[in-house]
Amino acid sequence: MKKFITIILTALFLGCFLLIQELQAQAPSKMSYQALVRNTSNAFVTNQPIGMKISILGGSATGNAIYVETQTPTSNAGGLISIEIGSGTAVTGQFSSIDWSDDSYFIKTELDLEGGTNYTITGTSQLLSVPYALYAEKAGNTFSGSYNDLTDVPAGNSFDGAFTSLTDVPSGLSDGDDDTQLSESEVDAFVANNGYLSTEVDGSITNEIQDLSLSGNNLTITNNGSATTIDLSAYLDNTDTQLNELQVDTYVSNNGYLTAEVDGSTTNEIQDLSLSGNNLTITNNGSATTIDLSGYLDNTDTQLNESQVDAYVANNGYLTTEVDGSVTNEIELPVQTGHSGKYLTTNGSAVSWANVSSGSALDVVTISASTTLSATDQIVFINGAYTATLPASPVDGQRITICAIDQSAAVNGNGRSIHLAATSLSSLTMADATVNIYNMFYSSSLDAWFSNY
Questions:
Q1: Which pTM does this prediction carry?
Q2: How buried is 442 (Cβ within 10 angstroms: 0-12 exposed, 13-18 middle, 19+ buried)?
């Protein structure tokens, strides 16, 4: 069921009972009024100033305002406000001048929940029973309360004070009860005029009943799939064991843990391992035990003693003595024909014959353009400002002599270092403007050229 009511106003109009002794005094020009105030969330507005505008309308709920006043009461802890109509700041008319016997009257209330004059909540209801003292004050024939003031009293008749002894009592007071009681039609009219619901509007009397649901840390309400989910993780108390500083200090003190360095060094407890032969030790402890690891060697290589080798040889037909009287005739060499004066060399995977270079036997090359040299011993003359690039695949021991008279001539190591005296270069430029001679030798094990100047 949807909530149509944003504020409930319960007005209590306190009148005076028809008591003779009270009618002797002047009736106050005020009317007590109380109301319970709720906000748009149907919660009581408590301990808060409420801006009010009260209008007395004549004739109907939309009639002219006979009297208008404003007040700013403060609601109590239960959302109740209590005022006296007639004691506020008058805007229109005078409350004491209202003739309550002249017409039917309605009370209109307008509220500003922020305590100002921006009135946004309005309610109108009929004053079905005007406080009697106010009515009597304007009724014209006021009764002093003294029997002697009565007129047209038959001679010899006296009033015994009993209600039942009265005649011509209005029908509304015939039972002697002056409580304001509304008939069924009056209640229906009040409900209709103020927008209160009289029937269930969506067919269910339980679908507004909500319950809470907690899944993990997520809190939701039931019967509303679009309701906001509240994450309660921020409210976890983190009850894991957590020690404060004092507890940690006490724990350390009770159990003998160190709180400061005791020997002046923050590194001498750092250990390392050292292996000498099969002996394993730790550093920074001269008295530490040395572990002999020889017992952990797996010795998985097949190792035969002399008799086992002899037996194996004998069983498999291997030779134990030279059978043709020559210990060299089994040595194989590459074909020697046509390679007189050369020497045998290898590139690591195959052997070949190479020329023996010595003295004037070196190849002599003059270059007049930048040139990459070949993998042979050479004397190279650079004729101009050109670069001689050393061989891409030099052979071990290769010797190259570079000569140049142009200071702009250069030698490039072709990706290998050229070591000259105490300097390692990727390339070099001639040092002198006149004569430059560099002897270079290649080492395959160091993969570098070594030079002198």
A1: 0.30
A2: buried
